[in-house]
């Protein structure tokens, strides 16, 4: 498929109308302060316990490092407090409560539906097919003239599969709002991120996370990659001092360990292959679905008994049976070899 192009001249970012003028008069909520010199008596901070006595600076160093790693411009990078925070900021910027709506796919485990309830924004859904594949036609049929955002997860959680790249690009080329793609697990897919498409699609927004690929879920740190104009508006509405000094420091340390991340990904993918193959041989397993992530989805026989035995063995997996198309399904995160063996040992005992 040839790359679709959306003209920057014709595209207008779907910012809430009353915010456009108001935002022009608002400064960035995290002003720059170079703490390396001078006497700072402007922010009611304590003079003791350096450096944690000072409010955190804007994360320019962190964003510059991410830009180098991901081969994008620094102005296209926005660091924030996790994927849910990224989605909330986009909803607040673009969706007028009780008027606008967003569309996402199902089954998908995403904070966007809960956020829509909290913010008074309608959340519509488009079903993936029986193999959890995306259709841009189905996605766009769920939209109307009040749809401002499309939220996709690729690789999808909990199903584990990459959504069809061409279908995402078709949707982005046709849709006049933002297409937001959560790529938290893309590094486990050995597939190309959508980041290069930012050049051609000003309405494309990519979210990535430190949680899985950098083994840093405790930081609750994520990144929005998007057009510089959109991020300029986001910087005006973000809370003051939104990323702590500790998170920024540890985030930079995590980025310096990217060589370790590559090695760990290779080990996880090797374990994933072994565990998925073992699951296919289990009498209590009905189906194992394709995975491009550090987890996979399996449909189980004797579902209640499987859950009971795993709970008794203190092995914790995700019950996805309540999601559309996921009856009797468990989402299995790939762990260390010993952890995976403990899981399989319990399941092999179920005849």
Model description:
- It is a single chain.
- This protein is an alpha/beta fold.
- The chain folds into 2 domains: 55-256, Type I PLP-dependent aspartate aminotransferase-like (Major domain) (Aspartate Aminotransferase, domain 2, 3-Layer(aba) Sandwich); 259-348, Aspartate Aminotransferase, domain 1 (Alpha-Beta Complex), CATH 3.90.1150.10.
- It starts with 16 loop residues before the first helix and ends with a helix.
- Helix content is 35%, strand content 16%.
What is the structure about, briefly put?
It contains 11 helices and 11 strands. With 351 residues, the chain is an alpha/beta fold.
List the helices and strands and how they pair.
Blueprint (H helix, E strand, L loop, with lengths): L16 H8 L35 H11 L6 E4 L1 H13 L6 E6 L5 H8 L2 E6 L8 H6 L5 E7 L11 H10 L3 E5 L21 E6 L12 E4 L2 H10 L7 H12 L1 H23 L4 E4 L6 E6 L2 H10 L5 E2 L9 E5 L3 H12 L3
Parallel strand pairs: 2-3, 2-4, 4-5, 5-6
Antiparallel strand pairs: 1-7, 6-7, 8-9, 9-11, 10-11
N/C terminus separation: 48 Å
Sheet bearing the most strands, described?
7 strands, mixed
Q: What share of residues are in beta strands?
A: 15-25%
Arithmetic mean of pLDDT: 93
Low-confidence stretches: none
H-E string: HHEHEHEHEHEEEHHHEEHEEH
Q: Domains counted in the coordinates: how many?
A: 2
Strand order of the largest sheet: 1-7-6-5-4-2-3
Structural class: alpha/beta
Query: What Rg, in angstroms, do the CA atoms define?
Result: 22 Å
List keywords for this structure.
Aspartate Aminotransferase, domain 1, 11 strands, single chain, globular, seven-stranded mixed beta sheet, 11 helices, 2 domains, alpha/beta, four-stranded antiparallel beta sheet, Aspartate Aminotransferase, domain 2, 351 residues
């Amino acid at each position: 498929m040839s790359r679709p192009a959306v003209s920057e001249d014709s595209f207008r970012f779907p910012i809430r109308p009353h915010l456009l003028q108001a935002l022009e008069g608002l400064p960035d909520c995290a002003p720059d302060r170079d703490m390396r010199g001078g006497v700072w008596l402007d922010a009611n901070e304590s003079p003791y316990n350096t450096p944690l006595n000072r409010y955190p600076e804007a994360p320019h160093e962190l964003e510059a490092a991410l830009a180098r790693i991901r081969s994008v411009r620094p102005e296209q990078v926005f660091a924030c407090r996790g994927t849910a925070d990224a989605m909330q900021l986009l909803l607040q910027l673009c969706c007028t409560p009780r008027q606008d709506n967003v569309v996402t796919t199902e089954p998908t485990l995403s904070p966007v539906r809960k956020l829509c309830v909290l913010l008074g924004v309608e959340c519509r859904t488009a079903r993936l097919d029986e193999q959890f594949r995306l259709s841009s036609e189905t996605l766009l049929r769920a939209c109307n003239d009040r749809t401002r955002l499309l939220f996709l997860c690729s690789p999808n959680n909990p199903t584990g599969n990459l959504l069809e790249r061409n279908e995402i690009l078709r949707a982005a080329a046709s849709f006049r709002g933002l297409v937001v793609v959560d790529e938290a697990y893309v590094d486990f897919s050995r597939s190309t991120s959508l980041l290069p498409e930012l050049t051609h699609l000003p309405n494309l927004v990519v979210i990535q996370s430190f949680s899985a690929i950098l083994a840093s879920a405790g930081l609750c740190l994520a990144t929005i990659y998007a057009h510089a104009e959109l991020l300029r508006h986001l910087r005006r509405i973000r809370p003051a001092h939104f990323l702590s000094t500790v998170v920024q420091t540890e985030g930079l340390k995590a980025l310096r360990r990217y060589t370790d991340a590559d090695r760990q990904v290779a080990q996880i993918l090797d374990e994933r292959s072994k565990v998925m193959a073992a699951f296919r041989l289990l009498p209590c397993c009905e189906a194992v679905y394709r995975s491009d992530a550090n987890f996979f989805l399996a449909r189980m026989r004797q579902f209640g008994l499987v859950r009971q035995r795993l709970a008794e063995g203190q092995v914790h997996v995700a019950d996805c049976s309540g999601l559309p198309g996921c009856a009797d399904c468990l989402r299995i995160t790939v762990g260390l070899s010993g952890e995976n063996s403990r899981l399989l040992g319990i399941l092999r005992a179920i005849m």
